[in-house]
Design a protein that fits this description.
alpha+beta; 60s Ribosomal Protein L30, Chain: A; Phosphoribosyl-aminoimidazole Synthetase, Chain A, domain 2; 2 domains; six-stranded mixed beta sheet; 11 helices
Length: 350
């Protein structure tokens, strides 16, 4: 499909990828005002702040469902489609489930951009879903000044294998399966400050499915898991702490980061979503004295299609880590541990 390849999709977006989502503070205010009590005991929804909604269909299995969409994170429409689909599938994998099918969600400025660009975006989503061994069965589209794309994904899981984000245990090691920093790098890309190597490396991180990570973790006796997306590493650890009524120790030096991210962060090349994340969390986190502000923003950086965040008992964590690193493209790391609840939810040190 031919289209003007000089067009930069990110210039049509006020935010980059997951950095454009509602802030945690705004979303909390909205959801706190809703009366959405469940009509039965078969379903679990957003009241639990988990990655997927759950609907038990029988004594053995449940349907799990998630929806994700966002504005362009890269200029190439095909890669945008692939990354958006990868991100949309991630919640299913974080819960330990198997995706079954997906539906497209599309917003597109038909009077500003060639429709061939939309075709290329959708083809990227189709091809990524084929890699996940599922079909896109339809969807919905609207006209909008800002292009947006994503998927509603339906999956299935055995009832006795559901992995939630609020069941971490004291003493569990915290494992991350991808480096962080895609929000900061995406902002650098939009400002045309990132070189081709860095752009390609970051795209590769965002465009890699979490399916293999999920399959490997399900072989071990892990207690909880979530994926790292818009609320950043600290935001998603905070969700796990809050839901599990625990605190966590995190070692900044052990957190894998995209190369050169610190250079950009020192120059305040940080998306607004990452700054909002830190502002929302600042009273819930203790930073040791040696922490610099730019390092705080890195840990709060709003991610697009990040890795899994796994809570694993210490007796299994080294074996899990070894198998992850033997089979995955990106290095997994133990970055801290959960502990008994204290005044702060997260304690960050070097």
């Amino acid at each position: 499909m031919k289209y003007d390849k000089e067009i930069k999709l990110t210039q049509f977006s006020p935010g980059a990828g997951w950095a454009c989502k509602l802030s945690a503070n705004d979303l909390t205010q909205v959801l706190s005002k809703l009366n959405n009590s469940s009509l039965n005991d078969k379903s679990i929804g957003f009241d639990s702040f988990d990655d997927c909604s759950i609907y038990r269909i029988n004594n053995k299995q449940s349907i799990i469902q998630t929806v994700d969409f966002f504005t362009p994170i890269v200029d190439d429409p095909y890669l945008f489609g692939q990354i958006a689909a990868t991100n949309s599938l991630s919640d299913i994998y974080a819960m330990g489930g198997t995706p079954l099918f997906a539906l497209n969600i599309v917003a597109f400025p038909t009077e500003k951009l060639d429709l061939n660009i939309l075709s290329v975006i959708l083809q990227g989503g189709i091809d990524k879903c084929k890699m996940a061994k599922i079909n896109i069965l339809g969807g919905h589209s609207i006209k909008d000044d800002v292009p947006k794309y994503g998927l509603a994904v339906t999956g299935i899981i055995d009832n006795d294998k559901i992995i939630k984000n609020n069941t971490a245990k004291v003493g569990d090691d915290i494992i991350i399966t991808k480096p962080i920093g895609s929000g900061i790098i995406s902002t650098a890309i939009k400002k045309e400050l990132a070189n081709d190597t860095l752009i390609n490396d970051t795209i590769e991180i965002m465009n890699t499915l979490n399916d293999n990570s999920s399959k490997i973790m399900m072989k071990y006796n892990i207690n909880a898991c979530t994926d790292i997306t818009g609320y950043g590493l600290l935001g998603h650890i905070n969700e796990m702490c809050r839901g599990s009524n625990l605190s966590a120790n995190i070692n900044y030096n052990k957190v894998p980061k995209i190369e050169t991210i610190e250079d950009f962060a020192k120059k305040d090349i940080i998306p607004g979503g990452s700054k909002n994340n830190l502002e929302f969390l600042i009273n819930k986190i203790y930073f040791s004295n040696e922490f610099k502000n730019y390092q705080k923003y890195i840990l709060a950086d709003s991610q697009t299609s990040g890795g899994l965040l796994i809570s694993c008992p210490k007796e299994h964590s080294e074996n899990l880590l070894d198998e992850l690193n033997e089979n995955l493209q990106f290095k997994s790391s133990i970055i801290g541990e959960f502990k008994e609840k204290e005044h702060f939810n997260i304690f960050c040190s070097h």
